[in-house]
Amino acid sequence: MAEKTKGQQLAEELMFTPKQAGMTLSQEEIDRAYDFCGDYMQFLNTAKTERLAAGRTVALLEAAGFVPFDRTHVYKAGDRVYLNNRGKAVIAAVIGRKPVAEGVRIVAAHIDAPRLDLKPNPLYEDSDLALLKTHYYGGIKKYQWAAIPLALHGVVIKRDGSQVEVSIGEEPGDPVFCVTDLLPHLAGEQMKRTLSAGIKGEELNILVGSMPFKDDQQSELVKLNILRILHEKYGMVEADFLSAELEAVPAYPVRDLGFDRSMIGGYAHDDRVCAYTALRAVLDVEAPLSTVITVLTDKEETGSDGNTGLNSAYLRYFIADLAEAEGVSARTVLSASKCLSADVNAAHDPTFPDVTDKRNAARLGYGVALMKYSGSRGKSGTSDASAEFTGEVCRLLDQAGVIWQQGELGKVDMGGGGTVALYVANLDVDVIDIGVPVLSMHAPFEVVSKLDVYMAYRAFRAFFEQK
Ligand code: MN
Ligand code: MN
């Protein structure tokens, strides 16, 4: 091999060159990453909503020996506990060898994802078809949700207080549902609408039936027939829709994507990709020095408000309980704590290159992406990690051999967004955003790179195992 020139040597020493994970990793490690992603894909297929994700999470935790957290109990190093917040958010912790007064380590991800929620009075009949009115949840491009198969998941609380679970559209023999769209032949007027109004909010109506109940005396016979089926199957009546949370999500499973199978295409990588990797990190960590906490939260997509969102006190209460058990104040623990806000980032898309600053955008296949700040306009709505904490995390990732890149969420003034980082940072905790780059974020079919997914897991585990 020819000797390196002085310029080449100097460039190697001084220049920042992000590494493509596929160029750097051994075949062995690539195989491990693909295996890991097989588990992740299974998780996604059984965790289509925040409730299902929380339920699956609790099942995995219990199988690994985690027990429900008891705030009156004093735990010892190595103990594994979890807290189920109303079936929609979960905290899992492994007690460390150091006192919590020296700080805990938190990885926070969210398990809610954009979807179509049923309205409180959703079922109606029009032109001999039965439909459900919806109210979309989170930031969606509404036109993407028409003419795709939808499944329906959730719970109904009936007047007698009993609860029924609804889950229909995932099994091969199940029926599915859909929002209809206009045929191009008659869409002349619709095609003149802006893209954001291509399908309007009140046009996101889900088709659920067309067969009438046979009775000449009654009107709305198709709707009546649907109510008959719902009553037979779930014991519910129309008024029970009000005390229900029913969510329509894409009905198809996630798939390997690409001839090389290097990517995963499917619904709700945002943010179950960081939720699953953070969950696996807390499941796999052994005898950590600091107490480590994975929090899988709800309501991020609507601004983190509500008692299952991270703007509520449930994480603070959990840490306060840990502190109290060791005879210290919650603020002592929080002020010494560190957090990775684990959420997806926008990957540079060669088809739409104008929205990202190529020098600062995350790229698919370049590892987990660190994001110093998010927000909009002049960094509005971000916690902006300090240089000190950012430096500490970079050092940690380098030492652990994690392939990482940095990513900014789009060009200045192009738009922007937020994560849960600020809610944790506002508790006086050091926080930085880190996560997996995604193409087509918030679409019913999002794309991630398998190697990036694995690097997220490696990053969270290194953070939990830091000495
Ligand atoms: Mn997210
Ligand atoms: Mn999101």
Characterization of the model:
- With 467 residues, this protein is of the alpha/beta class.
- Helices cover 27% and strands 24% of the residues.
- The protein is built from eleven helices and 23 strands.
- The protein has helices at 6-14, 21-24, 27-46, 50-63, 221-234, 269-284, 314-325, 330-335, 387-399, 421-425, 450-464, and strands spanning 67-68, 80-85, 89-94, 105-110, 115-126, 129-137, 150-157, 163-168, 178-179, 206-209, 244-250, 255-257, 263-266, 292-297, 338-342, 345-346, 368-371, 375-376, 404-406, 416-417, 430-435, 437-438, 446-449.
- The strands form five sheets. The protein has a nine-stranded mixed sheet with strand order 1-2-3-14-4-15-21-17-19, sandwiched between helices.
- Helix 3 crosses helix 11 (450-464), helix 4 packs parallel to helix 6 and helix 6 (269-284) packs across helix 11.
- The longest helix is centred in the first third of the chain and has 20 residues, at 27-46.
- The radius of gyration is 24 Å and the shape is globular.
- The model has no long low-confidence stretch (mean pLDDT 96).
- The structure holds manganese (II) ion (2 copies).
- One manganese (II) ion is lined by residues 110, 270-271, 300, 343-344.
